């Protein structure tokens, strides 16, 4: 359920107070901090926040208020949106069918991709991977690693000279097959000693 403006103010005051002092404020301190005269009003807001899952408190104990994990999760979500590292995920759509925006969409967090120092981007040249929907001009996000499984799309450096984006397969004869995703192109066979895996594909980005 949505919070009122005053409930948000109470919750934010509580979170800041607890973070600063390592204990929860009294109702009097909340009233003073928010310039409210009525302790009954504070009690009403606290009860509402508790019923909505934003606060927890121990029965019959002073300074027993705790911020529930739900609030921390929503703050993190809001920060991600403000910094451009997350966008609303409105669900799935079949081609040609319109989608109705849900009231509370999930979030797609880009820090899952870009928050790692081992991740880098490349721009694709050519059409060797078009059957995997990786087109000329697309951007690919790569995770640095030398450990990959057969069938994964990798950045492969061949003979220390040229890098290529292909699916990797280890053949029975000891060679490595770099398989394009284009029926008009032949695979590349190289000896393991001539190959260095520089990373594997984790995402494809395309601008229109």
Q: Can you describe what's shown?
A:
The protein is an alpha+beta fold. The protein has three domains: 5-67, Winged helix-like DNA-binding domain superfamily/Winged helix DNA-binding domain (Arc Repressor Mutant, subunit A, Orthogonal Bundle); 84-112, no CATH class; 116-205, Umud Fragment, subunit A (Ribbon). The protein has five helices and eleven strands, in the order αααββαββαβββββββ. It has helices at residues 5-21, 27-34, 39-51, 69-82, 111-114, and strands spanning 55-57, 65-67, 86-89, 106-109, 119-123, 139-143, 153-158, 162-170, 176-179, 188-190, 195-205. A seven-stranded antiparallel β-sheet has the order 5-6-11-7-8-9-10, with no helix packed on it. Helix 1 packs across helix 3. The two termini are 37 Å apart.
What share of residues is helical?
A: 25-40%
SS-based structural class?
alpha+beta
The coarse silhouette is elongated
* Major sheet characteristics: 7 strands, antiparallel
Low-pLDDT sequence parts: none
Oligomer: single chain
**Rg (C-alpha, Å):** 27 Å
Average pLDDT: 81
**Strand ordering within the main sheet:** 5-6-11-7-8-9-10
Architecture of the largest domain in CATH? Ribbon
CATH homologous superfamily (4th level) name of the largest domain: Umud Fragment, subunit A
The structural domain count equals 3
- Identify the CATH class of the largest domain: Mainly Beta
Strand content: 25-35%
What's the number of helices?
A: 5
**Terminal Cα span:** 37 Å
| CATH fold descriptor of the largest domain | Umud Fragment, subunit A
Query: What is the ordering of alpha helices and beta strands?
Result: HHHEEHEEHEEEEEEE
Compute the number of strand runs: 11
